[in-house]
User: Which sequence fits this backbone?
């Protein structure tokens, strides 16, 4: 078959086997690579010959991981990073110059917001925000110096969904790039390039690893754009380690089956929470009550693994809820095989001003629940018994 299915590519895409004919890709724990002679060394560094030179540039393990994600996302090329934030920063830094302008969705990860508001202005780069439910305002924010439109979908932590086709149409009309953080959806549930995105970024630390073991990030897209990202990263050194790349490549073999089960758990929990008297609201992309439900079912295979909701009682209600969780993990991570409940206002988005939190729907009682692979009855039991103490 020329066009193999997602699950098959995830399992069967592999670096060339060595002379030992190993079934599973080995670890290439080496910082450098050797050359046969001076001419091969010269030609390799001049990029006349394509081969591994130094693991900060490339390594068989990182190359395999990149190849898999490119096939899954429908991208031409990519570069792998030491973390999701390394991918975001390096991609932006490679493409931006002093005096450039960014148009971004207001609902972005707290660290990304910090780049936009604390560091980029020092280098003459400004950002204009649009609300996730006001895509009709995006066009008015674009300036002559706008370089790209940036968004997460679904968003962190409010699981809002942005219409990729609409954003792509706006970007193309104004000849700017569209960059999408696809972390919450993964390549299995959503492929933004199919809807017009130019670059796609992932924190591989989350669902791509799926077991809370290693850090990693990746950016994929056209060869032309990735070339700029590669050249910047080759100089600055945020590259992914061979060991972490090996772990992440193996993790991709189970991504589809994990996402199927975790998304099923998430939908069942969301449906349960909708009827709970101690829950003020619940958001999940494949709930019909979600404000962007029609967009979600258009561009996502399933609703994803994250449920957002608000418990009654404000700060005290939230504290009581978290203090009475017994099985689920209290952690700031997500995408694990173990269900995690997080309080965004005091953890992942703690450094945001109160007004900024409220602007993206992060209230004192907001809970982000990342569904794991436990039996759904046990997850619901633990969430319910904690809610009942409020």
Assistant:
């Amino acid at each position: 078959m020329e066009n193999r299915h997602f699950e098959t590519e995830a399992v069967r895409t592999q670096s060339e086997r060595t002379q030992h004919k190993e079934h599973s890709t080995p670890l290439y724990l080496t910082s450098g690579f050797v050359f046969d002679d001076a001419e091969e060394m010269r030609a390799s560094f001049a990029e006349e010959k394509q081969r591994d030179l130094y693991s900060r540039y490339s390594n068989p393990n990182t190359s395999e991981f990149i190849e898999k994600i490119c096939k899954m996302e429908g991208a031409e090329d990519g570069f792998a990073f030491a973390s999701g934030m390394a991918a975001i920063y390096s991609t932006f830094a490679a493409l931006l110059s002093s005096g450039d302008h960014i148009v971004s969705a207001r609902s972005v990860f707290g660290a990304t917001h910090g780049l936009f508001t604390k560091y980029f202005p020092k280098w003459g780069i400004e950002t204009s925000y649009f609300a996730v439910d006001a895509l009709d305002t995006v066009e008015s924010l674009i300036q002559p110096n706008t370089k790209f439109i940036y968004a997460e979908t679904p968003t962190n932590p409010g699981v809002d969904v942005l219409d990729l086709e609409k954003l792509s149409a706006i970007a193309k009309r104004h000849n700017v790039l569209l960059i999408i953080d696809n972390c919450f959806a993964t390549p299995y549930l959503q492929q933004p390039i199919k809807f017009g995105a130019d670059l796609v970024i992932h924190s591989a630390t989350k669902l791509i690893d799926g077991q809370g073991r290693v850090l990693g990030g990746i950016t994929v897209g056209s060869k032309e754009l990735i070339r700029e990202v590669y050249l910047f990263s080759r100089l600055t050194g945020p590259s992914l380690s061979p060991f972490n790349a090996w772990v992440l490549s193996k993790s991709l073999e189970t991504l589809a089956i994990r996402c199927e089960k975790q998304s099923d758990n998430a939908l069942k929990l969301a449906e349960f929470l909708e009827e709970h008297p101690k829950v003020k609201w619940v958001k999940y992309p494949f709930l019909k009550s979600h404000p962007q439900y029609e967009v979600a079912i258009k561009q996502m295979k399933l609703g994803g693994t994250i449920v957002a909701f608000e418990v009654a009682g404000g700060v005290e209600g939230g504290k009581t809820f978290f203090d009475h969780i017994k099985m689920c993990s209290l952690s700031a991570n997500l995408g694990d095989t173990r269900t995690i409940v997080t309080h965004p206002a005091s953890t992942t988005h703690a450094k945001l001003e109160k007004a900024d939190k409220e602007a993206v729907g992060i209230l004192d009682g907001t809970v982000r629940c990342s569904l794991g692979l436990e039996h759904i009855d046990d997850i619901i039991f633990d969430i319910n018994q904690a809610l009942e103490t409020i």
